[in-house]
Design goal:
The protein is 44% helix and 3% strand. The protein is built from eleven helices and four strands. The chain has helices at 9-26, 53-65, 68-79, 88-95, 110-123, 128-136, 206-214, 222-230, 234-237, 248-266, 275-289; strands at 85-86, 158-159, 201-202, 294-295. The strands form two sheets. It has a two-stranded antiparallel ribbon with strand order 1-4. The chain is globular and about 55 Å long.
Amino acid sequence: MPSIPTQSGHELDVTSDAIDNVNIIKGKMWNDKSEFDESLDKSQFRDYDAACDRVKKFYKEQHEKQTVAFNIKARVDFKSGKRARMGVWEAIELLNTLIDESDPDTSMSQIDHLLQTAEAIRRDGKPEWMQVTGLLHDLGKLLLLFGSEGQWDVVGVIVGCKFSDKIIYPETFKNNPDSCDAVYSTEYGIYKPHCGLDNVMLSWGHDEYLYNVLKDQSSLPAEGLAMIRYHSFYPWHREGAYSHLTNEKDEQILEAVKAFNPYDLYSKCDEPCNVEQLRPYYQNLIAKFFPPVLDW
């Protein structure tokens, strides 16, 4: 775990109480540069070479099993019925039993990661819609509790074309049957040049699932939905992969995804949040952008 300056519980409470007044003064835009992470040594994050066996095993399994056939079936299953009906905060509490096996940076509970992300965005004075986006960006991991085959099918890559060598542990795709397919193993696969990310099959995972849940059940702006849909798509937004498939619209939303990434990645620390102290603020925020109950 990277070494990050921490605050005591009391200090966090005092800071939280003061944030709203500060935000009024700061008036930041969503795409202003993040400030909370300026003093962090970012080289210590996403260090997959030093990751534990749990993380490496996760990616190996994911890369072997994420196929076109699996993704078609996953989308059919999603449209065939509802998994639950509940509010956003109830969903957060339900997710709190999960530890993300793909994350090399923290073993904290999901509610702590969600609140840490949202609080970093709030502390930087970003808009309320971005704060609530940070709060729920990983709720798609509920798939694991809704009968998914394992954590490997709750994080995504593009399928239907050659797997990018910029994906972490690219050598583990060798046992994926699509790697030997006459079409799926080619540069463009089943896609046309610059067709756009809306027209490719991003492998079924927590990002894509949550995007499909929220796109018609929230008042989040397009930037917020893009932050949710692509925040784990590191080969694209950090490594520059798939430029042969992206289009002008994708270049526009890329700015939003990059603006969100520091809060998701660098806000993680081992100091737990005071959930009960923060809960009223975020429940009020949730009510501004979501109905009381959503179909999951």
